[in-house]
Every structure is written in structure tokens, then in C-alpha cells.
Design goal:
The chain is of the alpha/beta class. It contains 15 helices and 15 strands. Strands 1-2-4-3-7-11-8-10-9 form a nine-stranded mixed beta sheet, with helices on both faces. β1 and β2 form a beta hairpin.
Length: about 475
Amino acid sequence: MTSTDQRLAGSLEDTLERARRVRPLRDFPTVDELLASFDALAEAHPGLVSRRRIGTSRLDEPIPMYVVGSGPRHHLLFAGVHPNEPIGFRTLQHLAEQLCTDPELRATHDATWYLVPCIDPDGTRLNEGWYAEPADRVHYARGFYRPAPDEQVEWTFPFAWKGLWFDRVLPETQALMRVIDEVRPRLMVSLHNAELGGVYYYVSEALPGLVDALHAVPESLGLPLETGEPESPSLTRLAPAVFRATSLADDLEFVEGLGVDPGPLLCGDSSAAYAARYGTFSLIAELPYWSHPAVGDQSPTAATYRDTLLAKADALAGTGRLLGAILDAARPGLSVATPFRRASEAFIPVLSRMAEQERARAARPENDRPATVAEVFDNEDLVRCFRLRYGGMLLRALDAEVDAGVAPAEVRAQRARMLEVWREWTTEARALEDLTTLPVAALVGVQLGAVLAAAHAVAERDRQAADGGEAAR
């Protein structure tokens, strides 16, 4: 075994042990609770933790960043990029606490850690209604909010492609850009999570030993890898459940290659694409709230993958038509410009475009093969997911009109219609058998373990680069 292999093996053992130490958790903190916990750490460790304001949200809320340690490598982590994805809040809380109380951890990584607990406080506050009871999928969906694409911090970095241009950069994104430009991080982790399935990752490159570590962390905590349908067919798979970090250009090139018009540019580029200019290694660890035995089942089914895609396309198109009809009927009477309305008006038309893209993809000859159990399940559940998500948000948009006392009769009628549809969709979702709610502590442990494994891999890359430079001299 080489010295590199020995170091990687030792670091993996330490990472797995730390991932298993996360205390039991059952919920997620509100913005106020989250920031209060970081302020308490800064007060308790004044020589180790510093706080600074990096920007201001669209609703005039300060966005703080906490800096821990003073090592030569700069590691930047931020949570709340999608406010319906709060696992990262707990991950940053645990990591910050460990960095403050464990000098061995600080010495091992010898880094300065830049931690942004919540980059989108405005959007996060619109999800707090389900944070105390995150185990129920229907309760989650009824309180769900995800910003319209051009209001998402993760996807509003500047972008240009074949005459298309995005420069409507949000104040929150500008804050993050300034930090990236200042820090030039060696490691950057955008803390996301999925909803149902298994664990999967995005990395900017496959560093030596990292894929094995990313597989070992969830295995040690009893969580499955996601080996069914990837989030996007344009992704480059580096290993099971490990994909190359994507950019908007990848998606647009793929859609254009299908012979489909990509449509209007709804958002900008990603944080990983922006930070690439500094040679930053980017990691995203996607964790689900719920899992199902089918997500790891690679056995073939009687259905073809082509027919699986076509069935999904039909269901997405039908969902888009139904939600669109309700929104169109209510629109003349809508008077409250809520985030829920903006998100509904953005996402509902996307369902029809997704259906068109999936039909075009199904026509490719390589898709005339048996679909696996995992692929069939993931494609079917995506439809359930979108019905719950976007049905829940449309209901919240209509609720706002009714609650404000400004809803005319037609808006109240469409709300009643949407409630009837919602009951059908939630009944179907609740009928899904063998659904497992995953322990929050295990999810945090996987995200923490992935962060530490990536930090070790980046340090090893830097060490090898330095050794190579010494040898050359």
C-alpha cells in the first residue's frame, strides 16, 4: 500500500467514525433558531469564530457568514440555497460545533471554514411550517415552497449561451459571488437535499479515493445509494450515484440535441460553474427524506425504458394541463403577488416542456430495453413528487387570496377545485407502501461525512501537486 493509500484509508476511517457520531435529531431549525445557534458559538469561542454580514436579502434581512479557524486551505459551505432543503442547516450546525470543540478535527484539516448558515432566509421562512414535523410527505407538500427558477440562489449566476443571456442576479447570489471571489475556495459545498430515493452526489471531478469514500459513508449509516433515474438525462455519470457537477449549458445542449427547442431561459448558471474559474472543487451531497426498497433494485421489469419514459411524459403533460387550467381560470381574479403565485406561474408550464423532452428522448433507439425496477419507480414517483409540490404551491397561492379577503367567487371556486384534486393526489401518495422515513441524524451524518471526505481528497490532491512541484525543481 502506498503512502497515499494509507493516508486515504486512515482519513476514511476517521470520517466514518465522525459521521456516526451525530446526535439524534427529528426536525429542522427555523432561520431565527439557526442563526441564534451560530451566534452562541461565536460568543462562546471569540478567538476562533468570527461573524460578518455578506449581504442582504430581497426582504432586507441580513445574511451572515461565520468563519472558523485560520488554516491555509479555504473551504466554503452554504445552506438554504433551495429553501425546501433544510438538511444542510443541521449539517452546518453540527460541523461548526465540532470545529469549535474538537481541536483534533481543526488540526487534521488545517483549513479556514467559511460557513453561510442560510443564504436564502426569505424563501426559508416560507417552508418553516413543516420543519417541526418533516416525516409526513403530505404535510411537507402542503407547506412546500420552492422559488421560481429565476429566484433561486443556486441557479441565478451570470450565464450566456448561443445568444441567450441571464444577468438578473439576485442580491443573495451577488453576496455569494463576492464571497467566492474573495475566498477562492479550495473546496466548496452547496448543501442540498432531495425528497425520496437514495443518496447521490455531484462532484466537479473524481479525486483519488473520493468515490469509494462517498459510497462508504451512506453504507456505514444504513442508507441506500440512488441507482435509478438521475435528476437529468444530460448528467455525466462518474460512478454509481456519483455525477459530474452540471451547468445550465449541459442541459441546454442536451435538449437541443434531442431536436427540441430549449424554450425561454428561465434561470442562470450554478455556483459550481461560477467557482470553477478558481480551480475550486465543488461537492453536492443529495439526501432524501424518505426511501423505498425499489430505489436500489436493478432487476429488469417487463416494461421497456421507452414505455416508462412515455408514461411519465403523458402523466406530466396531464398534470400540467390540469394545474394550468386551474391557474388560468383563477388568474383574472388574482391580486396578491405572492412568491407562491410567481413559482406556480413559472413551474406549471415547465411540466409540458418536460413531457415534450421525455417523448423526444424515448424515441432514441438505446431506450428500447428493459427498464429496471428502480427506473420505473423513480419515473413514476417524479410525477407524484411534482403533483404534491406544485399542487401544494398553487393551493398556497389561492389560500393567500382567500386569507387576505380579496378572492372573488371564481378564485374561491378554483381553490375548491384544487382542493378536490389535492385530496386525490394525496390519497394516492399515502397509498404508496413500504415508504421509509430516514433518520435526520443519518442524513446529516452522510452530508457531514461527504464534506470531510472531500476535504481530505482535496488536501491529498494539493499534497501530491506540491510533491510534484518539488520533484520538478
